[in-house]
Amino acid sequence: MVALGLLAGGLTACGGDGGAPTLRWYINPDNGGQNTLAAACTQASGGRYRIETSLLPDDATQQREQLIRRLAAKDSGLDIMSLDPPFLAEAANAGFLRPFSAAEATQFTQGVFPPAVQNSTWDGRLYAAPFWANTQLLWYRKSAVQKTGVDPNAPDFTWDKMIDTAVRNGITVGAQGNRYEGYTVWINALVASAGGQIVGNTQAGSDASIDIDSPAGRRAAAIIAKLARSSAASPTLSTDIEEQARSLFNGPRGGFMVNWGYIWRAENADAKDGVIDKNIPADLAWARYPRVAAGQDSKPPFGGIVLGIGAYGEYKDTHAVEAVRCITSTANMKRYMLDSGNPAARAEIFDDPDVVREFPMAPLIRDSINAAAPRPITPYYGDVSGALQSRWHPPASVNPIVTPRRSDDFIGQVLRDEALL
User: Fold this and answer.
1) 240, 265: one domain
2) DSSP state of 348
3) Is residue 5 in some structural domain?
4) Helix 215-228 and helix 181-193, axial crossing angle in degrees, nearest 10
5) Which of 247, 330, 333, 394 could form a disulfide with 344 if both were Cys (CB 3.0 to 4.6 A apart)?
6) pLDDT band at 19, cuts 50/70/90?
7) Does residue 182 lie within any of the structural domains?
8) Are residues 194 and 264 in the same domain?
9) Are residues 50 and 193 located together in one domain of the fold?
10) Would you say 116 and 345 are in contact if contact means Cβ atoms under 8 Å apart?
């Protein structure tokens, strides 16, 4: 699945059949849904353009490295790109992306979830079109959790209560604790749910305020430390990503797990193929991302993909805009959600009968995306995330007092070029 995307013809735009311009769309790995949309929009163009895709690596950080390297080289063949939202500000601030006009921005943001618009915007301008949005839910095994007597949907259900319940009943809590972007997602969601933020005044660039050494930061650290040192944690938490957390959840002690919306499709597909017990999907339930404090609504993670247009492409003001408009139409967002399982960026799609039938948790996903907390929107996001991970990893080493202070200092040093990652 991993590919470098260094395909012949990928460096320059070229003519397609009959002289129609060919647009190169760099896509993140999925189950083929983006290729399907590329073909559909090629056909819908009536011969005005063709869209060809190049596959980016699986890892979000590697995707960012490849795209930024090409954009820095003023690659004219990078017409459209699927961007992980946290990396948009870096590319936009460097002048690597074509900003949308006010009229275009209205089209691309109408009915779109506010966090998706926020993550597509830098310095007051829209630099990407929201394509699909994502969030994490609390997934749980009904058979295991019902025996505990707790209700994951109750207003007093918190991380502490979940961990205590899991320990008392011999079940597990799955999370993503590897030293990678998914761990930043977890930390950020805890800090935001506690009412804080990792970085403030991000428009100031390297002079942004580092705010993680706060009551919210210490509360987040306490939760991570508590889980990591408990019997409810995965024995491999420090190397667990999404799929390892799912394997733990499907094991004999599986109880709770925080993870993205793809879980529903993945569990049903694996049960059908005999990879997991066929009864597991019927045992699967979901609730909103756990609270940090009782009565205080959580701020679930925000993710997804936005579509940017390269600043150096020959067709950046014409065919590329038209293609992005086609790809992100309401009809194609719905089609992509049904094909790939990735949630759409427009709220109305979650009320569509076809979507609700396929995804019974669609209303919760919609509400969770609306309430989600983006990761810091800063051109230096890669440095912030890397510095944070370095001081909070492994999870079992986290200290509620020391870790927020050390990470606060280190992030500041990295942003001021006083320390290296």
Assistant:
1) yes
2) G
3) no
4) 120
5) 333
6) confident
7) yes
8) yes
9) no
10) yes
110 and 209 co-located in one domain: no
Token representation of residue 388: 């944070």
25 in Cβ contact with 13 (< 8 Å): no
pLDDT at 295 over 60: yes
Shared domain check, 292 and 331: no
pLDDT score for 18? 55
Region of 74 on the Ramachandran plot (φ > 0 left; ψ -120 to 50 alpha; else beta): left
Average of per-residue pLDDT values in the chain: 94
The answer, yes or no, to whether residue 2 has pLDDT greater than 80, is: no
193 Cα distance to chain centroid: 17
- What's the distance, Cα to Cα, between the start and end of the chain in Å? 29
Question: Which pLDDT score is estimated for 202?
Answer: 85
- 89-106 residue pLDDT tens: 999 999 999 999 999 999
Tell me what pLDDT residue 16 has: 44
Domain count, the chain: 2
Nearest to 144 by CA among 107, 103, 172, 178: 172
Percent of the chain with pLDDT over 90: 92
Nearest CA-CA partner of 86 in 60, 67, 123, 50: 60
Please report, for the domain that includes residue 208, its CATH number: 3.40.190.10
Residues contacting residue 133 through CB under 8 Å, at least 6 positions apart: 113, 115, 116, 302, 303, 304, 343, 344, 345, 369
User: What is the pLDDT, as a whole number, of residue 10?
Assistant: 34
Q: Could you tell me if 88 and 143 lie in one domain? A: no
* pTM of the full structure: 0.93
Average pLDDT over every residue of 23-37: 97
Expressed as residue numbers, the domain containing 362 is: 14-127+303-370
